[in-house]
Specification:
single chain; alpha/beta; Rossmann fold; seven-stranded mixed beta sheet; 7 helices; globular; FMN; electron transfer activity
């Protein structure tokens, strides 16, 4: 099965920690996690295609998106919406939309905020919209996950979140549990859909 792409943008590390914890869940679900980030937006035209970061995951390419079996998309909250670099990258994927490259691939979303009511759920919903336009299958978190009932930090049925109060980037125990559950569920859904497509192909 193709890798599960975990794509994020992070300024202070909270969203990155979510991405890495989701990756642990993806691997536990039997898939390969491929972690990538998006470049910051610059007013310098020459910086449109910057070199990969000196440390951390490389910048994403459209081929990464085309070649994945599933997508986990993460962004910090910016006024209740995704950060501009994430939107900028998604706006560059119209070619994939035209040829239906992402149709029926499962996807989930995740975010980090510095306050409890800083727009986590609206940010998650805003990230779902372009994925729905791409024909992706949105995978939330069911309430069968115990940590959704006990968390006092991040965690929603729309996707995993992190409360980065006072710039704390370390995930809480419940946030880690939910990340692992989200990643594992995404990997299992990707495997199930891949099997269905294989059986359908064999039947034809």
């Amino acid at each position: 099965m193709a890798p599960v792409l975990i794509l994020y943008y992070s300024r202070h590390g909270g969203t990155e920690q979510l991405a890495r914890a989701i990756g642990v869940g993806v691997e536990a679900g039997g898939a390969t996690a491929k972690i990538r980030t998006v470049p910051p937006i610059s007013s310098d035209p020459d910086a449109e295609h910057p070199d990969d970061p000196a440390a951390g995951p490389p910048f994403v390419t459209l081929d990464d998106l085309t070649g994945c079996s599933a997508l986990a998309l993460g962004s910090p909250t910016r006024f209740g919406n995704m950060a501009a670099p994430v939107k900028h990258f998604l706006d560059s994927t119209s070619g994939l939309w035209l040829n239906g490259a992402l149709i029926n691939k499962p996807a989930c979303v995740f975010t980090s905020t510095s306050s409890m009511h800083g727009g986590q759920e609206s940010t998650l919903l805003s990230m779902m919209l372009p994925l729905i336009h791409h024909g992706m299958v949105i995978a939330g978190l069911p309430y069968s996950e115990p940590a959704l009932h006990s968390t006092t930090t991040g965690g929603t049925p729309y996707g995993v979140t992190h409360l980065a109060a006072n710039n704390v980037t370390t995930l809480s125990c419940e946030e880690k549990q939910l990340c692992h559950a989200q990643g594992k569920r995404l990997a299992q859904l990707a495997s199930a859909l891949a099997s269905m497509n294989t059986e359908k192909g064999n039947a034809v």
